[in-house]
Each structure stands twice: as structure tokens, then as C-alpha cells.
Amino acid sequence: MNRDILLQAQERVAPYIHRTPVLTSQLLNDEAGAKLYFKCENFQKMGAFKMRGAANAILSLSQEERDRSVVTHSSGNFAQAVSLAALKLGVKAYIVMPENAPDVKKEAVRSYQGEIIECESTPEAREATAMAIQNSKGATFLHPSNQDEVIIGNSTAATELLEDYPDLDVILTPVGGGGLIAGTALSANEFSGKCVVIGGEPMNVDDAYRSLKSGKIETNTSFNTIADGLRTHLGDRNFPIIKELVHDIIRVEEDEIIEAMRLIWERMKIIIEPSCAVPFAAVLKQKSTFKNKEVGIILSGGNVDLKNLPFEQKV
Amino acid sequence: MNRDILLQAQERVAPYIHRTPVLTSQLLNDEAGAKLYFKCENFQKMGAFKMRGAANAILSLSQEERDRSVVTHSSGNFAQAVSLAALKLGVKAYIVMPENAPDVKKEAVRSYQGEIIECESTPEAREATAMAIQNSKGATFLHPSNQDEVIIGNSTAATELLEDYPDLDVILTPVGGGGLIAGTALSANEFSGKCVVIGGEPMNVDDAYRSLKSGKIETNTSFNTIADGLRTHLGDRNFPIIKELVHDIIRVEEDEIIEAMRLIWERMKIIIEPSCAVPFAAVLKQKSTFKNKEVGIILSGGNVDLKNLPFEQKV
């Protein structure tokens, strides 16, 4: 990947995103035995790094394409990201969502003026519905993780982090669809001579870990994890990057994810979503790997349902 | 109050505290119809502004006094603040707490090496126990809110905020024992030609509101508020300052406090405690007062029990 492409993307998306702060915590450094630098994409517009990829993807379209509209299928953060990026750029956005998606997710999309098209809750229905909108509206399809412009947009979080902390030994991200870790790996490869990239993945949906082992894209058969943003699998655009540039993927158990999430909430006083706690859980699980290292962690998002938290409930 | 005294306090406490960030949110600005600047004392060491007053009070003692120890009675943030400030300064701290104080509060004090002395859960027992320690150990008593050095230490949050945003029209704080709002009023009076100070107080414990009306220190007969840091009343050191320099106190209902807290958690992705949401609730309640104004809000603390949150529970 050409360094200029990454820098151009950074310049392109800058007016449409927050340059998020990097927070540190002496308590968590002591806990981990490493120096941790948390890149707070939970403070990003619409609450997640996905804004970066969505903005870059729409900005990369021609005016003619923008005039026709965009479409994606997502019930998560990418739906909100496309809606908000499109709104800011005066582009019509269609969001295909399963009819049983939670109301809170639908409301978030509507608040950014995305138009929701409901479909049955199967991958086939989702793709068929999105395809129908491409055909009828001339909409350009945007994939949440497996598209070059999205991956390159996502790279800008790591680029900012390395500008602020050029001496990082490692950057960790969660691994879901692969779009964030691939972008991060491109950035670390271009902008640091030494920084490796490591993923954190729930043991229960460890498709990316197995993909790195087998050399081909693996999938999951069950999806039982609290880290609901990480239930997807890698794609043909991001897997080659991950295979070449990602150093390792560390798997963590559900209770380790919740404990890492609790520590960040209690000690740092910031709200992160479960998926976002996975890389920190990986650091705590495998402390020897990170001992005394300078460790960047991309806190990917902060969209949680406050009515449904994993901490022990009122008695 | 002499400007030099406030500036000296700022210099004195600086090595022992965080200069906390000021966050903004376009969404909350839109909601309020004003420009809001949130001074994040929830990110302060031990999680609350109380660290400022405790540090300044201990730093103001002679070496002989420090060698003898300090004592306070508190089951809240001031207990942690005194413990941590004393630990950093090599001073022994005794913390008088009611025997029925929650374990989580006791553990927090112990984690900062404060020595807990338990007593019965009455004001009389609390004061008698603290007095006994003053007598037997020669400990200096530190009051959570009604002591000049504590009030002056607390002023440093507003001083920092006005350094960052000199054009503020108003600064809001919660009102509990009066130590934060008094310090804030001293600072605004010295460092701004126009900035007024307004308090937010729960309707259910509106002693400070009534005190301003009657001109004497009023107390509460019931203490039924989620804002557990605000159940105390004003004192003879801070009330004269408040009477002279505080512009107004706005009272809010319990549901308004919870809604303000939820908005800050959801939109800003930061954790604040219920007491801390009261000034923002006041802004939302009385929008016309703040319309298009530059409004500083001191987010006083972020110590919450994640197992016991006021948001609607899991079904």
C-alpha cells in the first residue's frame, strides 16, 4: 500500500471526523505491566471508528455516484456511520436491516436520516435486498469491512495514534470483519519501523485466529459472544493484508472480556462497548508478551445499551 | 479573597492532581441550546474534584502537623481523597466511617492506605470518634467542605477551566456541602470579569436553595435523593462566600437527574456519578437562562457502583 494513499485518506476524512484523544491510566499500566495508550474511538462521531471508513468510502465516490445514493446492510455501528457520513455529504443512504433488529439501533439510524429497508433475518435476504436497491436506485454498495476504501479509512485511527506516539511497540485492535485490523496493519507498516499489530478475538468466534493458522478464510458455527461487533468473518479484500501484516491474534474468554470492560469503565471512567474491551483483555491475558512495552490500544466504540449491561445486577 | 492565594494553591496542588480535560459535545450543545464546556473531574485522581481540596489542605499543614497525621469523617469521595493525598505526601490518614458503610467504599479507602476507624452511623458518633483521634494521635481534622484550605483547593478546577475558556458566561457546579461551589465562586470572581456561578441542587435536599433565600444555613429533614454526594448542608466557612458570590441555585427533580446522567453517559461516553449530573439537569430544566451562552459545567466525579445503576434494568 502506498503511503500517499493513506495520507490522502487522512486528509480527506479529517473534516468529517473527530481527531480522538489518546488517554492513559497509571492504574491500568500497573495492572498490565505495560505502558498503554488508548485511542478513544468511543468518542468518535456516532460513537465508533466506523465513521472513518464510511466517510472515506463515500468521499471516494464520484459526484454522479453520490447523486444516486449508497446502500449497506448492517444492524450495528456501520449502519449509523454510513447514515451520518452520507447526511454530512448530502448523499441519500439506504440501510438494510433485519426486521428483528433492536428498536434502539433503528432509532439511531433514523436520527442520522438513514432510510431503513427491512428484510428477513438471514444473510441471503440481506444480500438480496441490498442488491435490489443497487439495481432499482443505482445505489453504490458499501461493505462494513471488506472494501478497500473502508479499510483505508479505518487506517486513519492508527495513523493519528502513531503521529502522537511514534515509539509504540505494538497496536492492538479487536478483530471482527477484519476491516479495522487490516487498516491498522497498513498504517503501522507504513508509518513505523517497528510497531507490530496484534488482534484480540473472542474464543467463541475465533474465525480470524483459525484463518491465520489455516491460510484461508474460516467461519464460525456459533455466535455466542457478548462482543456482538465481532461475530462476522474476514473477507477477500482484508484477509490478504491481515495474513501478510498482522503479527498475532490472541483469543479471550467471555469472562475476561467483561472483566476488561469493567476495569476500563471503573478506572478510566469512560464507556466502551464489549467488543472494544477485547484487545485490553488480550493484554491482561498474555502479560509477558507486552511487559514494559509501549502498547497502543484502539478503543473501537462506545455504543452500549445502558439498560442491558453485563455487570452484576441490582439485588 | 486574594488572587495570589488562589494562584498559590493552584501551583501547590498541581504536582499531585491531573489537569483534567475539558470536553464538548455538539449533540448536547444542540440539546441545551448553549455552548457547554465540561470540566472532567470524573477523570481526576481517585475519580473526583475532592482530590484538589484534600491535597491543598494537607500541603498547607506544617511539617510537624503532617508528622502527626490527619483525620476526617466521610464515607464518600473525600475519604478517598484524603487517603490518597496523604499517601502521596507520606502522611498518616485516619478515616472515620459508619460501620454500615458499603464495602466498596471501605475497600477504596484501604487501597489508598487510609486507616478506617468505624463508628455508629450517627453524626454525633462520627464527630466524637474523629475528636477522639484528634486528641489521642494529635491528628489534624480535615473537613470535606467547610474549611478554607479545602475550599481554596477546590477553586483550582474553575481556575483551570477559566484559563482554558476565559469567555465563559457562567459556571455551574453541584451543591452539597458547599465546598465546590464556594471555591468555584472565589475563582470566577477573581479570574473573570463577567462569569457568574450557579449551583444545581436536588429538590429533595434543597437546603442550600433555602439557605440563600433565608440568609441562614438551613438543613434537610429527609435525604431521599440519588445524588448521594449532595445530602449534606452548608457550613459557616463556605456559606458567607456562597451568599456573596453565587448568583443562583436551580433545583431539579430525581427523574431529571437520572435523565441528565443518561444523556452524558450515552452521548459523551463518559461515566459520571449521579451528583455530578445535577448541574447539567439544571441547564436542561431552565434552558432560557443559558440560551446561546458559554456555559462551563464542573463534572464533579465519576465514582459509581456499576452493579447498581439507575437505568432501567434487564428484563
Can you walk me through this structure?
Two copies of one chain form a homodimer. Helices cover 46% and strands 15% of the residues of chain A. With 315 residues, chain A is an alpha/beta fold. In chain A, helix 6 (103-111) links the parallel strand 4 (93-98) and strand 5 (115-119). In chain A, helix 1 crosses helix 8 (148-164), helix 3 (50-59) packs across helix 8 (148-164) and helix 12 crosses helix 13 (274-285). The first copy, chain A, starts with a helix and ends in a 16-residue tail after the last strand. Chain A binds chain B through residues 21, 42-43, 47, 262, 265-266, 268-272, 302, 306-309, 311-314, and chain B through 21, 42-43, 47, 262, 265-266, 268-272, 302, 306-309, 311-314.
How are the SSEs ordered, and which strands pair?
The structure is a homodimer of 315-residue chains.
Chain A: H1 3-13, E1 22-23, H2 26-32, E2 35-40, H3 50-59, H4 63-68, E3 70-73, H5 77-88, E4 93-98, H6 103-111, E5 115-119, H7 123-137, E6 140-141, H8 148-164, E7 170-174, H9 179-191, E8 196-202, H10 207-214, H11 239-245, E9 248-252, H12 254-268, H13 274-285, H14 287-290, E10 294-299
Parallel strand pairs in A: 2-10, 3-4, 3-6, 4-5, 7-8, 7-10, 8-9
Antiparallel strand pairs in A: 1-2
Offer a few descriptive terms:
about 45% helix, alpha/beta, Rossmann fold, about 325 residues, 2 domains, 14 helices
- With helices defined by DSSP (H or I, 4 residues minimum), what is the helix count of chain A? 14
Quaternary organisation: homodimer
Instruction: Output mean pLDDT of chain A.
Output: 96
Question: What is the CATH domain class of the largest domain in chain A?
Answer: Alpha Beta
Q: Architecture of the largest domain in chain A, CATH level 2?
A: 3-Layer(aba) Sandwich
Give the low-pLDDT segments of chain A.
none
Structural class of chain A: alpha/beta
Q: Judging from the principal axes of the Cα atoms, what is the shape of chain A?
A: globular
Secondary-structure element series of chain A: HEHEHHEHEHEHEHEHEHHEHHHE
**Adjacency order of strands in the biggest sheet of chain A:** 1-2-10-7-8-9
Residues in helices of chain A, as a percent range: 40-55%
CATH topology of the largest domain in chain A: Rossmann fold
Largest sheet of chain A: 6 strands, mixed
Greatest interface (CB-CB under 8 A), with counts per chain? A-B, 21 and 21 residues
- Please compute the radius of gyration of chain A using only Cα atoms: 18 Å
Number of strands of chain A: 10
Number of discrete domains of chain A? 2
From the N-terminal CA to the C-terminal CA of chain A, the straight-line distance is 54 Å
**β-strand amount of chain A:** 15-25%
